[in-house]
Design brief:
The chain is an all-alpha fold. The chain is 59% helix and 0% strand. Plant non-specific lipid-transfer proteins transfer phospholipids as well as galactolipids across membranes. May play a role in wax or cutin deposition in the cell walls of expanding epidermal cells and certain secretory tissues.
């Protein structure tokens, strides 16, 4: 189990570093989105069977920060870029908004088509 914790911690640091390099000029920030979703890493990577309360709070904060179509595209692109090369359980990413009882206007899908927003 400690290997998963170390792996998740390293991954969270990578997200924070990558998030600094991609941001939108307006309200949306990839770095902020990364910070908001970082409590979800263990669940998204299959380490936990359900998301934590902090994860759901982060998803809610992310959803509340999406105000325009540009924000939708930015969130989609950010999620794609920051999750490339990492093993995510696609079913967990897709189920996260429903499990947290939230409506997220953009799917958390590392292979999604960001041009449709």
């Amino acid at each position: 189990m400690s290997g998963k914790v170390v792996y998740c911690s390293v991954w969270a640091m990578v997200l924070l570093v990558l998030g600094q390099s991609f941001s939108h000029a307006n309200a949306f920030s990839c770095r902020d989105a990364s910070n908001q979703l970082s409590p979800c890493l263990a669940f998204l990577m299959g380490g936990y069977s359900s998301p934590t309360a902090a994860c759901c709070q982060g998803v809610k904060a992310l959803s509340n920060s999406i105000n325009t179509n540009t924000d939708l595209r930015s969130v989609c692109q950010c999620f794609k870029e920051e999750t490339s090369g990492f093993h995510f359980v696609p079913q967990n990413a897709a189920a996260l908004p429903n499990i947290c009882n939230l409506r997220v206007p953009v799917p958390l899908n590392p292979t999604g088509d960001c041009t449709r927003y």
